[in-house]
Each structure stands twice: as C-alpha cells, then as structure tokens.
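Model: You mentioned two targets. I'll fold them one after the other.
Researcher: Yes, keep them separate.
Model: Target one:
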Amino acid sequence: MLTISPAVEARTIEKLRQEELEEARAVQSLMLPAEVLCAGPAIIAHEFEPVDIVGGDFVDYFLMDNGKVGFYVGDVSGKGLPAAMYAALAVGILRSVHKTGQSPSEILSTLNKRLMSRGGLRRHAAILYGVFDPRTLEMQLASAGMPGPLYLSAKSCRVLDLSAIPPGLFADAQYETLTLKLEPGDSILFCSDGIIEAQNARYDDFAVGRLIGVCNENSTASPTELLARIFAAVHDFTDVIRQHDDMAAVIFQLGSSETLKLPAPTGVS
C-alpha cells in the first residue's frame, strides 16, 4: 500500500486549492464587463482589483430594451471566496431583474427581498445602481451603503449624498431614487470603499480628498485614462503596504456637445 507523507499530502491539497481559486477567478472575470460600453453619448468604463485571487466587489453595465443604460457597482462584506460567491448570488439576482424597467430604488428593494428570503447567509452587499436615459440626459441613482459618488462637471467636483441600508440586512429597508440632469461633458465616478480607505504605512487613508484631487488634475482624461490614474495614485500612496479590501470603480461620462448625436450603441449587454 502506497503511503503518502503528511507534507506531500499538504502540498497536494494546497495545489488543488490554488487550482480551484484560479478557476473561481476565471469565472468571476466572466461576470465583469468585457469592454468599455459606448451607448450614444454615454461612455462607461470600469476597473477591478481584488485583494485576493477572488474578491467581493462586483460591477456591471448594460443596454436595456427601452434604450436606457443601466449600471451598478457593489461591495460584499468580507473577503475571499465566500464574498465572491455571495457577489455571484447578488449579480445573478440583479441580472434577472435589471432589464425590467424598474427604477433603481425598486431594483434595490427587489434585491433586498430576495437576499433576505435566503436567510442565514451572514453577509450583505452594499450597492449603487444607476439608469441613464440618452433621450432626456437624466440619470437615476439609488445607493445602499456605498461611498457617495463623485459628480465631475466643468464647474466643480462634488460628492453626491446618497445613503441607505445595504441589501441583505433588514427586510423593511427602504430605498430612494435621486434624479440628475446631466450636461455635456459631465462624468460621475462610482467606487467601492477599498479605494478611499486604502492606507499607507502611517495608517492614513487615501480618502475622498485625494480622490477629488486626482479627478480635478485629470478633468480632460477619458474614462479609461482617469481610472488608470486613480488606481496608480492609490498604489503610489500605499506603496508596498498590502491592502485588506478589494477596489472597484466605474466611470460614467457624457460626451461633449459635439458627440451627443452619436448613432448606434455598441459594447456589452
């Protein structure tokens, strides 16, 4: 009978675990948008950096049958594979209802009810959900537990005050929809708290002020360029300090007045 030493058995188990995590990472990557979304005057891009092989942050954006553009960014409590599995559950629920034409607050209410109906999961998912109408240039937003998004315009860069209880905590949680009228050239940045709470060796947070500074310094950058500079600024700030939270960000940019007549939408669905 072949006897396997405890050391060899441990290495074998660890190798199998790593293979499973890599497969989980591949599956999670399929849940993310494959490319930048260009829909008429709107451009949406994202960046995602898990702190481990897989993470609990999630992002999606898509075209709706009624011509509108939907998007969301979320952050599951906890880290690693359990958080990633809960994120997959939340995304699955959202994808079953996100093209129904419901308002963002109704979508979050539905997500909350379905997460609560599963019971005993001991997690929750902070989320920000938005819908943009290219015909009216209006954006509807509902947020639950996520950092306030940054509204970037030619006049200023300000934090939008949006707050509610994350879905999955209380059955009677209520959500409200904020409606914004955008102007050509406006952008809105949505991010998980892993960005603003990233710390350096002195335990200082990157914080909203530094994030606003990066946005102001790169006011003419494209969405993908601005995302790259935000993540680079966070990495420069934290240096070699290992972080303890995933980072995810989505930028919505409304084209200038010259691009508002772009015809057919292209991108992910």
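Model: Target two:
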Amino acid sequence: MAKHPFQTAIEDGASREQLGAILDPNVTMWAPLLTDPVRGRELVLDLLAEVAQVAKPIAYTSQVADQNQTLLFWDGAVAGHPVQGVTILIDGADGRIREVRAVLRPWPVVNLLVQAIRERIGDKFPAAAWELGQKTAGSRVFTPIALRPLHPAPDMVLHSPILAKAVTGGEEVTEAVRIAHQVQSESSYTCVIATPDRVIELFDCDADGYPMEGIWDRRLNSDGQVTELSVYLRPFPAVTVLHFNAKTIAQRGGFLAGEDYWELPDGG
C-alpha cells in the first residue's frame, strides 16, 4: 500500500504551505484534545504544527485503509513519555483531505500534551472547546454489531487509553476492561477492518453521558486468540471523566490500586 500523502508530508518535514496543499480549504479536524471540531485549513494547520512539535519525534508504525478512510498509527513522545495515536483521514473527490480525526493514549501523557498545546495556542480556540460539553445520555442509540467472540490469550497485554502502564494476563485484562465499561456505555461500531492477525474497530460511545470516539486494535495469534489490545480515545475532557471514574471503581475494589497504573511517576 502506498503511503498516504499526509504521512509523507509529516515524515519529510513539509512546510506549512506544502502540508496545506493537501488539505481542503474547509477541512474539519476532530482533535483528540478538544471537545469541539476545528474548522478551516489555517486553524487545522496551527494545531497540527503544534502537536507535531510537542509530540516529536513522530514515527508511523502502520497504515490501514478501507474504501472510506485511511488510518495512520504512530508513536511519539511528550516530555520523554511515550504517546501513541491514530490519525484518521478522509479524502475528498479531488484527493485533498476534507476530514481529520485523531485518537490518543495513554491519558497521563495526553494530559501533558493538552497542557503544552493549551499554553502555546490555547487562545486560538474557544475556552469551552477545552472543557466538557453537554451530556448526551439518552439521546444517542448505540447498536453493537455481532462478531465472533475473540478470546484472550493467557499472556494478553492491554495498552489502555486511561492507564499509565500496560496490564498483562488474560484475566487481568478482562477485569480492567470490565471496570472501564462500568463508566463507558455500549458502543456503536462505525467501521471494522479485519485481517488474519488483526481486527481494528472504530466506535462511538459515551463516558458517563459525554460522547467519545475510539479505536480497538486487537492483534491475534495463529490460534485466533487476542495477544495484544490497544485502545485509543478522544476527546480528552470526556476521557478524563472515564479515567477518574474508573480509577475510583478500581481502587475501591482493590484492583489496579497502585498510583503507577493511573499517573506518571512524580506527576510526570
């Protein structure tokens, strides 16, 4: 699969003008940091430039696409702490990007990213865009799809969007997911991309009534068991609700009780 022009532009250190040339003038970005969408080429370029600086170096690890969109998986670092993301691109009929969506993990590092970006260009966006919007509980209908159950391998690893470090072991991962789902609603899957060794699911859901978008990326072994699950979410204000509510539930039950699961060492 040929690299998407967006990936090539970022890897080559494209100028603002060069990157802008592949964006539609009316491009919309659903950023991982903000509740409201960012509309228009200039504002989107502003945000992309700052994220690229704060989260550098960005290294793309894989590209997956269907007939509607391209998913770019990448690794970066914020203040020396690893951050992972997925950039979802929808191209227009003329080949220029008309929609960008991005989801990130893990919460403690994304928190550092939000603080840094807000300090640098926070005044370019409405203050409300950095905060929680209105709850949508009861107004959204979620319709899970029926997939063949995918069972965890005994040594399965979870890379959670709300935890500071990985969870290892099939039973432990199952419990961590169960705790998150006490706060997170059922999901509506908007897209599923599957290969023999990987299943990627895009979904919408709520965290205590606040809307979120996410990706489940499951890696499979030759027996069809899940060996690795990486979950990415947006927007940050809603993910924060999930993070703290799940932390309360987990620590009350004595599971994932250590602060090292929830926060960076020494506060990051």
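Researcher: Noted. Anything on target two?
Model: The chain has two domains: 5-121, 152-267.
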